Protein 1
Amino acid sequence: MSIQLTKLQLFLLMFVMQTGFVYTSFQNIIIEHGNRDATIQFIIISVIFFLQLLFFERTHKYFVLNSFTKTLYLIYWSLYVTVFVIYITYVLTSWIFPNTPTIVLIAIFLSVCFYASISRPETAVNIGVVLIPMLFLFLVFMFLTIPNLHATNLLPFFYDRQDTWWMGFIYATYAFGGAEVFVVLRKYLVSNDKIPKKSLFLYFSLLTSFYLLSISFSLMYFSLEEIKLIPEPILYILHSVEVTFAKRLDIFFVYIWLSWSLVAIVNYALVMRLVYFEKKRRLPRLQQLIFFAIIGITANFLIKFSVLDFLNNYLVYLNIIFTFILPVLIIFVNKIRGRTVSELEKSSS
């Protein structure tokens, strides 16, 4: 299976995948550990992410997955999507459909994801475009809460060093999960020309600003004691906005976030298709149906607050391994062995 991507499509895929899961949920966990220094911690981790992008661009030809590393990544992405589905279902049952059986909700949106995933690859690539006006509206209504914000809450403490303060850096990496898809998708660019540093910096700036806004607004809106008790601070902030055309603006944005999340799942499914179906396999649609069925059954079985809280606290370590550590190890090993993507394509042709 193969596709051709433009640079804009590559960055759009990455943006949706890197924000779809954690954008409404990770603020409270980083602020809980970083307190008023959460924005400083996030900026430091974001700089590391930018350096990682530069490294990936220079060495992407050495990112070659063998059977073992392919299996590891497919398991990791499957787990990531499963946690994603659990969280989506939890939010929907909490905010919109408290009386609807979870299996019904899971079946509905996974059916949409399955249909999109078996369509032409270009469908999964371009579907993220529909989110652009939605995200613009999202930001516009976020700024309507400015009169209720307290800018002094952004002043960092620096001296406030608790035993778990350093964990703020760990949980800040949630925002940059999915960075490994850059080197997975890099070889599918229409033109294999070098991506300029300016383009990488622009993407880094947009992603970082998008997240930094959510952390800053959460800090300015809630006290440190309140934020620890609120799992989706962004939705609670939108809940406070009063407009004439909607009584519950938060529900309106839950639907936007649901669409955003579905596109993220479809994009993850696309990346998994590119890795798993790199060689032709029998009955690809049946295998994808089985995949989504397993995801749905597992998510329905595990959808408990205690399970979600556990995953929210510990999935970050897998995130660090598969996003930051393992890609670098794969690149270094292949560079030592002199194994590149182009050589692999020649050997398989």
Note: The longest helix spans residues 305-337.
Protein 2
Amino acid sequence: MSGTDGRMSGTDGRMSGTGTEGPVAGPYPAPLAGPLKGGADGSFPAGTPRGGHQQWIFAMLPAFPLALLVVRLWYASRQDTQTLLLLVQHVSALGLLTAVLLTTLWVLPALVLTGRVLGTLYRVSTGRSSWLSAVADRISDWIVVLSVMVGAVSWQLRFLPTLAALSLAALGLTVHDRRPGRRELVVVFTLWLPLVAGAGLYVWLAPAIGEAFARGDVVTAVLLTLPPGLACLLTGPVPARAAAALTSTLAVAVLALAPLFTAAVVVEAPILPLVGLEISEEGAEEEIAGKVLIGHVIATDDRVSTFLGQDGTVRFIANGAVASQFLCPDLGQIPRSRVALHRWYVEHSVLAWFAPDPLAKPSDPRCPGRPANP
């Protein structure tokens, strides 16, 4: 035993030395000699980043606008394959992409703010983390501020109270989550600030709220009235038992409705200018002679014009048979609500409010499809 102890003692002496006879003992692990690999069961060591498993999501993001463009052309072609191919050949993708980007411009702020609010609300209410909390942590503060600025400029007036309520909720919950020991600071940002901001919004929106109720515009009245009052309720924790169900349900609903809403808006977006063609009595087919056709001119050459009617019919009309061509307004862009706040209509954004007013010109009487000289 003594000999063994002596040999062990010698070994300890060599290990504790400072020479190059052996590795230095200590708590430092040996460096990895190659890429990190999972175990036999597919698990990874603690602390291993798992972002690689989600790269396919980022790879598929560019495919979403492309899918929307194809759906829009398929919708315009009335499910006819040949018409769809004709539109793909002649319609500019830049115009359709512009419609997608303009729609995404005010959908993204809603997704960012909703994700930040729901994730932080779950952690503040339960004291635990979930996938919603992880999403909220990945949304940086500067992204939240940029989203609020983009929403303030691009959202319609009737949605600005909702934007203010979401912004106040994100601010109050963030302060509650990061500074739980600063009781006076939490009270200021979760109670007093929402109360003051809500009172200010009601004073500012009072004329528009009264006009909405007077006109019977229930949707506008609700959008202008409810969010400022709910701002105080969104900045505080909810019962822990209801937090998981509430936040998960709202998150799934938002994630499911956002693509559908975006697709619905893009499908209704114009792909080409809406024009009218007045066909002469001579040189045209008997079916369309002397009529006014409303639709879109897909292409024009030195002989014929390719015309897509509003009913989805494609016609090749000889240029000599076209008596006149005129531009018609898009009826889908006509406001549905006449409620205004200081000449700012509730369906207009800040950009539209500051932009020059459109030219006051009468619509062509032939746009409904009636010829000028029947």
Note: The mean pLDDT is 77.
Protein 3
Amino acid sequence: MRSYLLLPILALLAACAPQKPQFPMPDRSATAQQPARTRTISSDPTPSRTNTSSRPAPSTSVGAAPTAPEQANSEWAVSSIKGKFLDIDTSAVRIYLSITTTQPNGQPMSVETFRERFIVNYVMYPDYNNRERLGYGNIPITPESIQKIDDRLMLTFTLNRPKGATNAILLTEISETGTGKKSLNDLPLRFKPTKLTDQYAVFDATGRLPQLRNFVQAKDTFMIRDVPGTKKNLYVYRYKHEFDPALPPMTATQRPAPRTLNIDTTMVVSTNEPIRLPGEGLYYFVADTTDQFGLGLMATDARYPKMTRPERLVKPLLYMSTGTEIAELNNTKEAKKALDRYWLSLMAGNEEVAKQAIRAYYNRVEDANQLFTTYKEGWKTDKGMIFIILGSPDRVQRSRDREVWVYNRRNNLSEVNFTFNRKQNQFVEDHYELVRYSEYQPIWYPIVEAWRTGAIRE
């Protein structure tokens, strides 16, 4: 499905006795010096995690929506839906749905195939806990309403504001006509904008297609635009900060108190005009310098969400490596050769198994970057960590501020749940933190060990 630059295996090495894998705990005792120019963040992008003693309980929701692509199957199916709304004015909103599909040959569908095989319906509720219908109907699938972007489809439609409603939950149902199978997406709507992102989003260079993601490649030209095409100046802050990767799901370690981030560059841009950023980093767009919430956007290298540079390929191995292994990989002057030795030593010198394990692991890293990038790379997020090690959840239960990922069978347990709580964040709206439990340890380590022995080679 994807093409990857895989590490060439240079030599077969003898097997080494594996250590018990665990995350190396980074030194967090040092405090950053106060820079000449800083911007105080209203909420720490990497806040403290708390640990409790009880097992996470699933939440109930209007509908469950997969947040990660499923494996290719022999059916015509919708495997994920990502939604975004933009206020047109106080009377209507524009809805954008990015839809990932598969068909029997394993490839994404064309617009024509989707139109032939699927119907789309919607219903609006006042809230997740209120089933009173504010509105419902069918979304016509026409050449004007749906377009193909890379390997995804973009469905666009407009909804009028229900009388008297300030907020709503939009539940979209995409049904395959042959089997009746349904895929659901729930999207909170605000009909009176309270944030910049209620009105503005990142579009391609033509201003026609929203990107529905929190990153652009630094070389790309894009627009930040609203539906009416309003001209507006935005103040931009650029941060060149290396954010920490996720902590283990069973740790009780807490992050330090909120901190400031160094401002590397400031600039002013205009909405609805082409923009090209000066380089990689985290960019923060605000309409006013006193605003508490704006639009955060990562500018990445030209290969992202793929990772190909040896020094960058080392970093995601944190989730399946010992502290000693990571230290050796980080301290080497020949990262490429060190990576070859690392994988071959884990796979008892079996070159073919090593290649398959490399492909499987970095496929997941790329998918995590594509799906879960926020103010930092997707693989560094809590969701990205769980996705890389365990894969796509079997189902997802969502409420307004919570997602529960349910895995039906892992490590001989009938069901394993991972609960993610939405946390307020000034850069992005989809910042979630995992609720950590010590009871995850007997689940986590055997799956990590399966990676280390080459048992996972999807």
Note: The chain has a mean pLDDT of 84.
